[in-house]
Amino acid sequence: MTPNKKTKVINITGWGRNGSTILGKILGEINGFFFGGEIRTIWNKVLPDNRLCGCGTPIKECNLWKSVFQEAFNGIENVNIDKMKSLCEKYLRNKNIPCIFLPGVKSFINSNLSFYIKNHGKLLNTLSNVSNSRVIIDTSKSPIYGLLLSQIEEVDPYFIHLVRDPRGIAYSRQKKMLVQPDENRPLVMKQENPVLSSLLWNLRNTAAEHLCKNMKNKYLFFKYDDFILNPKATITKILSLVNEETSSLPFISDYEVKLGANHSVWGNPNRFESGIVKLKLDEEWKEKLNKKDRLISTLITFPLLRKYGYKLIED
Known about the structure:
single chain; about 325 residues; alpha/beta; Rossmann fold; 5-stranded parallel sheet; 3-stranded antiparallel sheet; 12 helices; about 40% helix
């Protein structure tokens, strides 16, 4: 990468279990693109516990990530991981997302997170160099993290606001899912009840809209359903957004993609899967989410449900 050239970063934002991992993996198969998963977690979840890279190797032993940290910081041991973790856990949390609506929030971020911004920018820029990628896909989803990305000098940010029916997410977030299949240290994804999940769905999506309202040339909105039912069109629109070529897409049919291994740092456990994947809507919730939880989620989210074109009562 030439000096002063910014790294394009596609930040998929919204609320978790929205299909961001499979979208990121598809984009990551395109020449010049790198799928990094939820990169914001590298400082507070991945490096401190040496968790698995998407390639199946602990991150500190992964050749790609070792090269990134060597070039950026002269080795992982020279990064103040404790300070980065502390800043991440203090500021980049759901409870702080309402701050995104306050005047002066950008100045606050620049004042209090300058150390984080400097090191995270160096990480992303070096990752682009080492992976020989023009575009990095970051599925971190948190709008407050997205705002932080927009303050990093080395980054040219683009935002994909991906929305899934909150009742589908509420059902998914009740499941036990193994997010880290480390043989001796397995880790299950945090479960949430439909009330909390639906409230956070409102917060994350409202904040994502606010974050991107003045970024018309760097922002796209997709519903999960439209992405799965029209995956090629979705990918083509994203490539157009970031001014990249539309050749060499990984589709082997309209709804099948061939996915290789990746070096994502965190996310849905399907980031570890490779091979031929058939895209289909996950609508298990329509049969298995109980009536009480469905009603609770609908009542909490109904203004945005209607805005995004979802039915209040499913057939």
